[in-house]
Specification:
Layout: H1 3-14, H2 18-59, H3 64-71, H4 75-113, H5 115-136, H6 145-191, H7 193-199, H8 208-220, H9 246-298
Helix pairs in contact: 1-5, 1-9, 2-4, 2-6, 2-9, 5-9, 6-8, 6-9
């Protein structure tokens, strides 16, 4: 038996691993995306711990906040509120940590299950490459041209999806950078009331870095939905008992709108990744079909 025949037989025995291997990789990517909102939840909880600890520190030191609370005789009440806020924020942080770990465990489980497939799939790709090179050294039969073209068409479809996925990943990075910038701005405003008062009451503040990130994201992927600006201010406490000024609340609401855009990107990515996986499986099948045809024509 020739080396080409050996490789063709080996590929036939390994080709069944391609779909489960690639589908497991797809499942891992989907879990990582599902973890994104949880990661943001974790960051938000950590930020609120910092916010409350800053307020607690200000209430226990010679600060403007301490002076105001002392004058208005609300120091004890404000300290109690800050203490409760710290406790609640830490509870939320712990819950978010547990959620993150749960998703990490899911990923680890699939990666472990996919290890055997991974080894076999690497072997399949090596064999596929070798038999292709061996057959490329021989003259092609004219009837193989449609099969060769089918491979090129499949590669083109795969690359189109890969290009859009690359753009969407960059868009998500930009949206997350915008989110981090807005979160930093909220903490800064919350810790320094003087800065907000100097800006002027009723003004809308939006960090330049966040604006630039959103602008770049829009230019990179024009299909990205427009970020809807919050319209209504509700003076209500958050899940840790904190109240925010209109300027701070506006930024919190923008963050929630940003999370909707990130979710939109995730849905686009999931659809494209599913299509790309099918194109990759199809490409392997087309290559094997092409090589089998060429092998048979050399006999």
């Amino acid at each position: 038996m020739s080396r080409i025949d050996e490789l063709v037989d080996a590929i036939s025995g390994l080709s069944h691993v391609e779909r489960p291997y690639l589908e497991n990789l797809l499942a891992i990517k989907k879990i990582r995306m599902a973890k994104d909102p949880i990661d943001l939840e974790f960051q938000e909880a950590a930020a609120k711990v910092t916010m409350w600890e800053t307020e607690w520190k200000n209430l226990n030191s010679w600060s403007l906040q301490w002076v105001i609370s002392t004058i208005t005789c609300s120091l004890r009440e404000d300290k109690d509120r800050a203490h409760k806020g710290i406790q609640k924020a830490k509870e939320l942080l712990k819950e978010a940590e547990e959620k993150v770990q749960t998703e990490e465990d899911k990923i680890q489980e699939i990666e472990t299950r996919n290890e055997k497939y991974s080894v076999d799939h690497r072997t399949l790709e090596v064999y596929r490459q070798e038999v292709t090179e061996l057959l490329d050294d021989k003259k092609d039969h004219p009837d193989s041209e449609p099969l060769k073209q089918a491979i090129e068409d499949c590669k083109q479809r795969y690359e189109e999806k890969a290009n859009n996925l690359k753009k969407l990943e960059k868009v998500k990075e930009l949206l997350k950078e915008a989110d981090s910038s807005i979160l930093e701005a909220i903490l800064e405003l919350k810790a320094n009331n003087m800065k907000e008062s100097m800006m002027g009451q009723g003004k809308v503040y939006f960090p330049d870095a966040a604006y630039e990130c959103l602008l770049q994201a829009r230019q990179l992927y024009p299909q990205l939905p427009t970020l809807q600006s919050p319209q209504e201010y509700k003076n209500e406490k958050d899940n840790t008992g904190a109240y925010y000024s209109p300027m701070q609340k506006y930024l919190w609401d923008v963050r929630h709108k940003l999370s909707e855009l990130i979710l939109w990107c995730d849905n686009e990515v999931i659809e494209l990744m599913g299509q790309q996986t099918e194109h990759q499986i199809e490409l392997g099948q087309k290559i094997d079909e092409y090589n089998l045809f060429r092998r048979d024509k050399t006999h």
